[in-house]
């Protein structure tokens, strides 16, 4: 592994990429380049082998309900590696449908229940009262964020002691119409309903770059220890 190459896993890039979510990866590549790092982005799609610990960053974008049913059949193979990677505090960003997959399930408007990985105690349900669409604004630990949301799933935390939102809503819905909370922040994991893409908010993008570079150094050191 070269010390100036950042490896990014893009989960189901060909199926999960709504409203320009791939822009998040492009922005990270741009910011990393400015710091002298090259990037390699691997699309991990249906049937592909995947070990999250081979990567410096994992990205999972949003998707339509249909694509989510396709991904749901393949993704359970990766639960173990993703759960370990997330719990070890390594950086991952999940947007909208990708974020929903990290919870227990997503019950869609057609009554289908799409099983999630169950990494976090949260669930997502369609309720006929609202499709959450429009501009959003919320406050995070890195300052204000502006974005766009479009989802019919409403996400609820089932263990509010363990789970903390990414932000507090100023405008728009975020996780659901009641909680005034947007997304999930756990160690270096970020789940969010924000498209636009989210990382046009350079405050969040810079925070993620820092997480990536910290983990990259550790990964490099581990690799050296293994090969010695
Ligand atoms: N299909 C999901 C929903 O409508 C996710 C949408 C998205 O990823 N933009 O809730």
UniProtKB/TrEMBL annotation:
Residues 7-200 form the CobB/CobQ-like glutamine amidotransferase domain. The keyword Nucleotide-binding does not apply. It comes from the Bacteria. This is Lipid II isoglutaminyl synthase (glutamine-hydrolyzing) subunit GatD. The active site is at 96 (nucleophile), 195. Substrate binds at residue 131. SUPFAM superfamilies: Class I glutamine amidotransferase-like (SSF52317). It holds the Pfam family GATase_3. GO terms for molecular function: carbon-nitrogen ligase activity on lipid II; glutaminase activity. Belongs to the CobB/CobQ family. GatD subfamily. It comes from Lactobacillus jensenii. It catalyses: beta-D-GlcNAc-(1->4)-Mur2Ac(oyl-L-Ala-gamma-D-Glu-L-Lys-D-Ala-D-Ala)-di-trans,octa-cis-undecaprenyl diphosphate + L-glutamine + ATP + H2O = beta-D-GlcNAc-(1->4)-Mur2Ac(oyl-L-Ala-D-isoglutaminyl-L-Lys-D-Ala-D-Ala)-di-trans,octa-cis-undecaprenyl diphosphate + L-glutamate + ADP + phosphate + H(+); L-glutamine + H2O = L-glutamate + NH4(+). Keywords: Cell shape, Cell wall biogenesis/degradation, Glutamine amidotransferase, Hydrolase, Ligase, Peptidoglycan synthesis. GO terms for biological process: cell wall organization; cobalamin biosynthetic process; peptidoglycan biosynthetic process; regulation of cell shape.
């Amino acid at each position: 592994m070269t010390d100036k190459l950042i490896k990014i896993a893009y989960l189901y890039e060909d199926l999960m990429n709504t409203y320009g979510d791939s822009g998040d990866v492009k922005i990270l590549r741009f910011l990393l380049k400015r710091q002298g790092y090259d990037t390699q982005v691997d699309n991990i799609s249906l049937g592909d082998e995947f070990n999250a610990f081979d990567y410096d960053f994992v990205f999972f974008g949003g998707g339509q309900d249909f694509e989510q049913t396709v991904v749901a059949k393949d993704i359970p193979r990766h639960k173990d590696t993703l759960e370990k990677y997330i719990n070890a505090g390594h950086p991952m960003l999940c947007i909208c449908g990708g974020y929903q997959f990290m919870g227990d399930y997503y019950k869609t408007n057609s009554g289908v229940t799409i099983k999630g990985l169950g990494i976090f105690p949260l669930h997502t349900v369609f309720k006929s009262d609202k499709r959450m669409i429009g501009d959003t604004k919320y406050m995070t630990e890195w300052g204000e964020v502006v974005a766009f949301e479009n989802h019919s799933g409403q996400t609820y935390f089932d263990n509010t002691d363990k789970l903390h939102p990414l932000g507090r809503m100023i405008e728009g819905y975020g996780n659901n119409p009641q909680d005034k909370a947007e997304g999930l922040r756990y160690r270096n994991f970020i789940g969010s309903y924000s498209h636009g893409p989210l990382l046009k908010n350079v405050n969040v993008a810079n925070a993620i770059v820092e997480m990536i570079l910290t983990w990259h150094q550790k990964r490099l050191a581990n690799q050296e220890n293994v090969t010695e």
